[in-house]
Write a structure and sequence with these properties.
The complex is a heterodimer of chains A (664) and B (366).
Chain A: H1 10-37, H2 39-50, E1 51-56, E2 63-64, E3 70-82, H3 90-100, H4 105-114, E4 124-127, H5 132-140, E5 148-157, H6 165-168, E6 171-173, H7 176-181, E7 193-195, H8 198-202, H9 204-207, E8 212-218, E9 224-231, E10 239-240, H10 245-255, E11 260-266, E12 271-278, H11 284-287, H12 292-300, H13 309-312, H14 322-331, E13 340-342, E14 345-348, E15 351-354, E16 362-364, H15 366-371, H16 375-396, H17 418-425, H18 431-437, H19 448-459, E17 463-464, H20 477-486, E18 493-494, H21 499-511, E19 530-536, H22 541-547, E20 556-563, E21 570-576, H23 582-604, E22 613-619, E23 634-638, E24 641-646, E25 649-654
Parallel strand pairs in A: 2-10
Antiparallel strand pairs in A: 1-8, 2-3, 3-4, 3-5, 6-7, 8-9, 11-12, 11-21, 13-16, 14-15, 17-18, 19-20, 20-21, 22-25, 23-24, 24-25
Chain B: H1 12-33, H2 41-60, H3 64-88, E1 90-92, E2 95-100, E3 106-107, H4 109-127, H5 135-153, H6 158-175, H7 179-199, H8 205-213, H9 224-238, H10 249-252, H11 264-297, H12 301-325, H13 343-361
Antiparallel strand pairs in B: 1-2, 2-3
Helix pairs in contact in B: 1-2, 1-11, 2-13, 3-4, 3-5, 4-5, 4-6, 4-12, 4-13, 5-6, 6-12, 9-11, 11-12, 12-13
The chains are: A alpha+beta (664), B mainly alpha (366).
């Protein structure tokens, strides 16, 4: 049936043999290329596949006040992650999970959507800083929801109610903008936590320490199957602030809910003892990831709660500027014998300038000019000095330039001069403009820290210090240099002054708080307290009238005071926005000065209370009425300083301050 | 007429090479699955292998001429079974490839179709009695292979469908196609591939992506490109001497996809290096040459055609699978004969070898 005898020509089978040899040679060539030529490269890729660097986060340095009392600590915070293991349908659990974590399903959906391109083995952050209740929920449902995992990490715990918030600042995740555009953050990784304001920002490099890492052997699902070498983390350096909790508390209480700022400083050294700005924000809201609504509320608030007004508000200093005028007048030899009759106003260059006392001060010389704050006297003085001499002395005392304080985003303010006007407006200076400068109006703008430093400098015989919030000797030498270079300002300087003019001014400033002065209500019995009030218009009367604001726009109240009157140990500058009259600010200053002096007296007499008082300075969760022990009592032990954390509340045992703590 | 067959004529040398490869395969399956949920698969493979050996011996006793005589019926049954798979088959990972038989055994007809096609093609070209092939003859041969191919493609199982084509090619080549017609077929074939590719009707997008991603695996590091990339890393990581048995990090860390079936050669290359790969390729070379020798010494043309059909399927699968593992070929899901884990594949190979044995043992008959 079939032709079974026929044979194939042998050549065809030989061809097939050659084809097979050819195919095998091609495969051998391919293997040679990968295994002999490319072996090293592929070996490296295989290693990169299986070894994952897991960061070990360095604990951020703590912050202490000048007496070593804990201000900012870290606390262990628990975050909840969603592990998308194969085999468990987590989508069906979402409504239950959302309820247990006090979230909405929409929120979880949003997270899933955000990370939809992430590899399966990567756990997704569901909620950060979960409460003990939520943690309990996860623990109780381990079997039902194996996809929920908790991870403990260290977070910042700031004092509650925004205590010293503007000095301390806050931390947050480094933004894409910072990574891309700021050379300072060239070595930071996305996801790193960085200081974003205050000391947290300016000393970030010291506080953050150095993250370590561990090489972990993983499989393709990211599951850990072994460990290799460890590079330990170097904890961040803890820093001691120049802030004194007692003075800071007095300043916080003094300003209360009023808008404005307080700076208290030691003029001998430039150490800032207290710094307050209002309105306040809660930095703990940043330690936990801040919600978008909350954030936009903060940055669009017309009162700018994130602004540290002590160094960032540049406003007309009003009559406090008269002290600088007086120093200029006396040093130039113009003011000593100047006698002016004040009828409640005077005309200069064809324009009538009112004195704040409409009935007039009568006969005024320099001393009365200061303690009665007579405008006409200073109009006349300004007219006699001319803008150049005023500007020369104001510049000498640091106006119109940054002080160089070690906090981010300080502003320079404005001190007008002929040159300044030509540069900025391409116009000649008109002599008439000098008159309002004489009472700290017109184009003059200064920050509270500038005014504190300038006036304390005059009271210290012309010695001005660079204000700072961290003790310079706490810092490594090269770091300090780099620090001062990156915060340029006028720094430490000495303005040669005649002792006679210095005496005249400080005596007159002490008189301000006596019955004949502008602010007898701030008088402190038994304390050598000197100061100067100021009320500054926030806009010119003419403009206010045109806008119809004349009643609604209130003057800013200023006060710069110090104690004792000569070579003071403390200077306090108050900016009380819309406070109308400087004497109201003066009373606030008096409370800070009183707290300081009382404390010094107690220290000198060893009258500090023996038992440490417990002060609740930190609260992280909003429901403190239900104290739940969070993983037991957290005791933070630092140099004998005990801090306890109970149910999300953080208690400081404030030790008695010792006499040696204060360097006079 | 009953023929006398002697196991003395059995190709023990060929079986020896096959057993060496099978043992290498079992060891590698053990190594590749030891840290996965497929641990112990080497035992299953050993059972398959035993079954395969028995089937081979039984099959070697069946005169291939009987197969040739009944091939019409068998071919018809095979087309019906493929239609049945499409109709009532079990769906696994989106493809209907299996028929569930009573007793819980899953049966994949498409593997066996290879065997039937080898015999059918041999029978067809022998029937043409050595005359010059006309276009009609060629189209008939194409239709014979094309019908089951399209049915398998419909499952969809691109890889298995492709393994049918070498049977046709070798049949045409040995059946006596002249160069002019061969040239035309190649040209038209290329054109057809182009049209099929562009039309997007026959191939599914994921199949297309699989076919192209081997050229740029980094374009799609999480999809098919991921498999190719991991496979290349595994092979290259082996270097000349290999990482050692059970020490390949790509294989043991589960980076290499399915390291016991389609990518078993990558796993083997990582653990045993270039030298190991050369040993395996040498074994394949010896097996194929031994098969061709059997084809040369076959008693008649159908015997030669059957053995060469087996050779065609084996070299095609070896080339495509190893080519895929080293990044020269697209990912098509074709197992490596005698190495990859899997019952259907093992049984096909050993039944095919059984047929070859029968051809060999029949060589002095007549």
């Amino acid at each position: 049936m079939l032709n079974r005898e026929e044979k194939l020509p042998g050549i065809k089978l030989t061809i097939i043999q050659y084809v097979i040899v050819g195919v095998l040679l091609i495969l051998i060539f391919g293997l040679w290329r990968l295994q002999v030529v490319g072996a090293e490269n592929y070996h490296a890729l295989a290693e990169a596949n299986r070894i994952r660097k897991v960061p070990i986060l360095a604990p951020r340095g703590k912050l202490f006040d000048r007496e070593g009392r804990l201000l900012v600590d870290n606390y262990p915070s628990v975050s909840c992650f969603l592990v998308r293991e194969q085999g468990h349908d987590y989508m069906a659990d979402l409504p239950m999970i959302a309820r247990g974590l006090n979230m909405t399903v929409d929120q979880i959906d949003g997270i899933l959507r955000k990370y939809r391109t992430a590899p399966k083995y990567q756990p997704l952050p569901l909620k950060q800083d979960i409460t003990p209740d939520e943690q309990e929920f996860i623990e109780a449902h381990r079997d039902e929801f194996p996809e929920l995992e908790t991870v403990e990490e260290q977070r910042r715990l700031y004092p509650k109610d925004g205590f010293a918030a503007h000095v301390i600042g806050y931390v947050g995740e480094v933004s894409e903008d910072m990574l891309n555009n700021d050379p300072k953050y060239a070595y930071y990784e996305p996801g790193d936590v960085v200081g974003k304001s205050g000391v947290e920002q300016s000393y970030d490099a010291l506080l953050r320490g150095q993250d370590g890492s561990q090489d972990v052997v993983v499989d393709s699902h990211g599951r850990e199957v072994g460990k290799l070498g460890t590079e330990h983390a170097v904890p961040g350096k803890s820093l001691k602030l120049t802030i004194d909790i007692d003075i800071q508390r007095a300043a916080e209480n003094a300003l209360g809910d009023r808008n404005g700022a307080i700076v208290a400083m030691d003029p001998h050294t430039g150490e800032v003892l207290a710094m307050v700005s209002r309105p306040i924000f809660d930095p703990n809201a940043f330690a936990v990831r801040i919600g978008r609504e909350e954030w936009s509320k903060l940055i669009t608030d017309p009162e700018h709660p994130l602004l540290n007004k002590a160094i960032q508000a540049q406003l007309a200093p009003g009559s406090t500027f008269k002290i600088i005028m007086a120093a200029a007048g006396l040093e130039e030899g113009v003011a000593q014998d100047l006698k002016v009759h004040c009828p409640g106003g005077a005309s200069f260059y064809g324009r009538y300038f009112k004195c704040w006392v409409h009935s007039g001060h009568g006969e005024v010389e320099i001393s009365k000019g200061i303690y009665q704050s007579c405008d006409v006297f200073f109009y006349t003085l300004a007219n006699k000095l001319g803008i150049e001499k005023i500007a020369k002395w104001a510049h000498a005392f640091g106006l119109g330039q940054k002080t160089g304080i070690d906090l981010p985003n300080e502003v320079a303010g404005t001190m007008p001069s002929e040159e300044w006007k030509m540069k900025n407006y391409h116009q000649k200076w008109y002599a008439g403009e000098t008159i309002s400068v004489g009472i700290g109006q017109g184009a003059v703008a200064a920050t509270p820290v500038q005014m504190a430093r300038a006036l304390a400098g005059i009271a210290s015989g012309g010695t001005l210090k660079r204000p700072h919030v961290i003790f310079p000797d706490e810092l490594p030498e090269d770091y300090r240099k780099a620090m001062y270079d990156s915060f340029p300002g006028t720094g430490d300087k000495t303005v040669p002054m005649d002792p006679a003019s210095w005496e005249t001014i400080t005596d007159a400033m002490a008189e301000v708080l006596n019955p004949g002065g502008t602010d007898p209500s701030a008088h402190l019995e038994g304390i050598d307290f000197a100061g100067k009030t100021g009320s500054a218009q926030t806009m010119s009367n003419a403009l206010a009238a045109r806008l119809g604001h004349s009643h609604s726009v209130k003057d800013n109240a200023w006060f710069v005071g110090f104690s004792p009157r000569r070579n003071p140990d403390i200077v306090v500058c108050i900016l009380f926005e819309a406070g109308e009259h400087g004497k109201l600010a003066g009373r606030l200053a008096a409370r800070v000065i009183e707290a300081y002096v009382n404390k010094q007296r107690r220290l000198e007499n060893n009258l500090i209370a023996k038992a440490p008082a417990k002060v609740d300075v930190g609260a992280v969760w909003d429901n403190p009425s239900q104290p739940k022990i969070f993983g037991g009592k957290q005791v933070v032990d630092h140099k004998g300083d005990q801090a306890e954390m109970w149910g999300g509340h953080f208690y400081l045992a404030v030790p008695p301050a010792t006499a040696s703590a204060k360097v006079p | 007429m009953r023929r006398f067959l002697s196991f003395r004529d059995f190709d023990w040398t060929l079986l020896g090479f096959v057993m060496i490869l099978s043992i290498i395969s079992i060891l590698e399956i053990y190594s590749a699955t030891m840290h996965t949920k497929f641990v112990g698969f080497q035992k299953m493979q050993m059972l398959w292998l035993l079954g395969g050996l028995v089937a081979m011996f039984v099959f070697s006793l069946i005169d291939y001429h009987i197969l040739l005589d009944f091939i019409h019926w068998i071919y018809g049954f095979c087309v019906v079974s493929l239609v049945a798979v499409l109709a009532v088959g079990t769906k696994v990972l989106g493809a209907r490839r299996w028929i569930k038989l009573p007793g819980g055994i899953h049966f994949q007809p498409s593997e066996w179709v290879k065997l039937i096609l080898i015999v059918a093609v041999a029978r067809y070209f022998v029937g043409l009695a050595g005359r010059e092939l006309t276009w009609k003859d060629i189209f008939k041969a194409m239709a014979m292979v094309g019908v089951p191919m399209l049915l398998v493609l419909k499952q969809p199982d691109l890889g298995t469908a492709l393994t049918y084509s070498p049977i046709l090619l070798v049949g045409l080549f040995l059946g006596g196609i002249d160069w002019r017609k061969a040239g035309i077929i190649i040209l038209v074939g290329l054109l057809a591939v182009g049209v099929v590719w562009k039309s997007g009707k026959v191939l599914k997008p994921y199949q297309k992506a699989r076919l192209t991603s081997f050229m740029n695996p980094d374009d799609d590091p999480r999809g098919t490109g991921y498999q190719i990339r991991q496979s290349l890393i595994a092979v290259g990581d082996g270097g000349v001497f290999g990482r050692g048995a059970t020490k390949g990090t790509q294989t043991q860390g589960d980076f290499l996809p399915i390291p016991y079936t389609d990518f078993i050669f990558a796993a083997f290359c990582e653990e045993h290096g270039f030298i190991g790969a050369m040993v395996v390729l040498l074994l394949y070379f010896l097996i194929l040459m031994r098969l061709i020798q059997n084809a040369q010494t076959a008693a008649d043309l159908p015997g030669t055609l059957i053995v060469m059909g087996v050779v065609a399927v084996l070299i095609f699968q070896i080339a495509v699978n190893i080519g895929m593992v080293i990044g020269l070929m697209p990912v098509t899901g074709i197992p490596l004969p005698l190495m990859s884990y899997g019952g259907s594949s093992v049984l096909f190979t050993f039944l095919a070898l059984g047929m070859v044995m029968n051809v060999r043992m029949s060589r002095f008959v007549n």
